[in-house]
Every structure is written in C-alpha cells, then in structure tokens.
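hiii so um. not sure if this is the right channel but i have a protein structure encoded as tokens and i wanna go backwards to a sequence. like what aa goes where. can anyone help
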C-alpha cells in the first residue's frame, strides 16, 4: 500500500479547517454558541496542524537540508507566529462574548490564504519529492501520536 502524499494529507486538512472557519463566519450572527464551538474546533485543529508541521515536517526537512538556514521553513514559521496572534485575538474576543471579529478574521485570512497556497504549491510537493515513502510513513506515525 502506497503512503498518502504529504501534499494530499495537508491540503485535505487545510480544506477541513477552511470549512470550519467559514461555517463559524456564517453562523456567528445567528447561532453564537455553535459558532463559538466551531471556532474553537478550527483553532485547536489549526494549532495541531502547525505543531505537526513545525515539529515533524519542518524539522525533518531542516535536518535533511542543513544548509538552508533561512529557507522556506523559516518563512513558514514566521507566518505561523502571525497566524497564532490572529487566532488568539479572535479567541480573546469570543471569550468576552464579543462577536465583532470581522477585522481580525480578515487579518487572519490575509496571512493564512497565501500561506496555504505556498505550502500546497511549493513546500509540500518539494517534501513529497525529497522524502522516501518510509520517511513519510514515519512522519504520519508521529502525527498520529501528536493528536
């Protein structure tokens, strides 16, 4: 059985997370409790996704290419910090029952959308190319342990 590609796995997770976020946006005006639960699920899922990338994928990539000190994973890590700040801003408002989060949502999407496109179009395909099937299998096993 062939291992799922990194690109396929992470792109599917991006889509799942995008769907949760958009459902949150649609429901926050009509069903605040459900919207808040959806945002929490989105935030938790995105944070887990970032942990998988930084502690498994990026680490393995950086070990393989030690000469890339400021390469693509360094840029992705910086963007992850910005994404986390926006997630925390929205979560903080929701904790205070403030659903006026449109500006924060826009700021998040301004970073997250191009970030995902870079990963899906460049970084993940590159990783699928440089990692063997066995290496990818090991990465997926590690991800299952970090759920």
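sure thing!! here u go:
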């Amino acid at each position: 059985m062939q291992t799922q590609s990194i690109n396929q796995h992470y792109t599917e997770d991006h889509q799942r997370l995008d769907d949760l976020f958009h459902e949150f946006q649609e429901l926050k005006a009509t069903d605040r409790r459900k919207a808040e639960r959806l945002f929490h699920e989105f935030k938790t899922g995105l944070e887990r996704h970032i942990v998988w990338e930084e502690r498994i994928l990026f680490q393995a990539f950086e070990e393989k290419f030690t000469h890339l000190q400021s390469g693509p994973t360094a840029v992705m890590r910086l963007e992850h910090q910005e994404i986390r700040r926006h997630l925390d801003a929205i979560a903080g408002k929701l904790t205070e029952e403030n659903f006026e989060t449109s500006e924060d949502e826009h700021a998040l999407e301004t970073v997250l959308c191009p970030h995902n496109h870079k990963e899906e179009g460049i970084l993940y395909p590159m990783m699928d190319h440089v990692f063997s099937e066995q290496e990818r299998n090991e990465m997926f096993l590690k991800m299952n342990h970090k759920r």
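oh and The chain is about 80% helix and 0% strand.
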